[in-house]
Design a protein that fits this description.
mainly alpha, Tetracycline Repressor, domain 2, single chain, 2 domains
Length: about 190
């Protein structure tokens, strides 16, 4: 569910906001902070006035785009756990985490501008990520597919390291192998008799 602020928006206004956020994430990740707000509005299929109604400044748009990506990652936990076994949900979330980190890295310059203007887009990031990974690890442990001695924050730290390898497509293949290796290390194995 996308992040919203303030009163509930009309359906068409919410669609416009969601499109603006999706286009902003893609544009900022690919083109960096030099992408114009006019280009974002045009690619979202709205006028610049609509963009400014939702996001009065560039920094407000960047921060909302980042927070929206974080919310999507956090919200994916329940969806994944309902759709597949807990260990598969954990592995699928790991892929989404790497995508999120790659996007965040692409938006780094724009996020630094938000911080320089006094914003703090990362205020709740760690808590949200720890909550998500804790839910997944505990569900997999309860299902007996992941070891019970796994510390969720250790998994999150490992994922952050793996995400560093995920810049280019060839590196993404390496990141996928590393995620598989991490999952293998997390799996429960019955004691040998």
């Amino acid at each position: 569910m996308p992040v919203t602020s303030g009163p509930r928006l009309r359906a068409d206004a919410q669609r416009n906001r969601d499109r603006l956020l999706a286009v902003a994430v893609q544009a900022l990740s690919q083109d960096g902070p030099e992408v114009t707000l006019e280009a974002i509005a045009k690619n979202a299929g709205v006028g610049i006035g609509t963009l400014y109604r939702h996001f009065p400044t560039r920094e407000a748009l960047v921060e909302a785009a980042y927070r929206n990506e974080l919310a999507r990652l956090g919200d994916a936990v329940d969806e994944l756990l309902q759709a597949m076994p807990a260990d598969a949900a954990l592995r699928a979330w790991m892929d989404r985490f790497v995508d999120y980190m790659t996007t965040k890295r692409g938006m780094a310059e724009a996020l630094r501008a938000v911080i320089a203007s006094g914003g703090n887009p990362f205020a709740h990031s760690r808590d949200r990520l720890v909550t998500a990974i804790t839910t997944l690890v505990h569900a997999a442990s309860k299902a007996g597919t992941v070891r019970s001695d796994v510390e969720p924050e250790d998994v999150l730290t490992s994922l952050s390291g793996v995400s560093l390898a995920a810049g280019a497509p060839a590196q993404r293949e390496q990141a996928d192998r590393l995620l598989d290796l991490l999952m293998d290390g997390l799996r429960y194995r019955a004691p040998r008799s």
